[in-house]
Fold this sequence. Notes:
By secondary structure, the protein is of the alpha+beta class.
Amino acid sequence: IRGVLRHRAFYHLCKIKQVYAENVTKEKLQEVEQSIATLLGSEAKDTGKGTSSGNISKIFFRDIILGPPPARDAICESEKDGVVSKIFNHVKIDRFTGGAIDGALFSERVLYGGTLPLTMEYHPSGNEADPDAKKAFLEALKDLANGLLPLGAASAKGHGFFTADFNEQEAKKWLSLEN
């Protein structure tokens, strides 16, 4: 989830800073990336002088741990805490003939419904994050809550969309955008 939110925050920050395809330069993109890095961190890069130029993230995501999948011979649908697991069977299609390929049946297990807890912690230590980066991250959270961010495999087939209960005022307080 972290990478998807970072990418979407980058998109929103480009809108805030008015960096568009018509006027993009390498310097403008680096400025936007550095702004995002003040909030979500960046990898350390060797500067050649024995020092690194990485940033630690101010937002930490807790892992979401799902239970073990049901046994293969179990019923196709199982429900626990409102989360339903379903197996979809597919046939591989021959790209030249458009017909089914013999012996190429495959299955995938998807989860839908229910709730999964997403816990984020904000630690405003060290240098202050760019306020525009915080606003962009808030917009990315809104997109996630409204189901506009596809996450996971097969999102083009309708899998991997999330919605959330989202309180914008609480999020602004959490990101120190309001006092």
